Amino acid sequence: MLDYAKKITLQGDQVSEEDVEGLRKMGWTDREVLEIAALTCYRIFISRMADALGVELTEDYHALRKDYVDSLMVGKKLF
What is the pLDDT of residues 54-78, one digit of tens each? Predict the structure, then answer.
């Protein structure tokens, strides 16, 4: 499932029916695959929109655990 989400994020133009079929073979339902895709795309959209508007992080991020922040900021410099 995470490989599928990663492929959507990094190589969205290369996602195929084969990827979806692989998830089905692992036991994911079509509805669950839709949810994975929708949530992944939503997260990408929010990040791109924030970037497009020049949104900067507030000081509140300094109070968060580093591993949590790192998971949110994949591929981006925090400060």
Answer: 887 777 877 888 787 777 766 666 5
- Rounded to whole angstroms, how far apart are CA atoms 4 and 11? 10
Q: Is residue 65 part of a domain?
A: yes
Residue 61 confidence (pLDDT): 75
Query: Quick one: tokens of 77?
Result: 């410099």
Structural domain containing residue 38: 2-72
Sign of CA dihedral 30, 36, 40, 46: positive
Mean local confidence (pLDDT), 34-44: 95
The answer to whether the CB of 36 falls within 8 A of the CB of 5 is yes
Using DSSP, how many helices (H) and how many strands (E) does the chain show? 4, 0
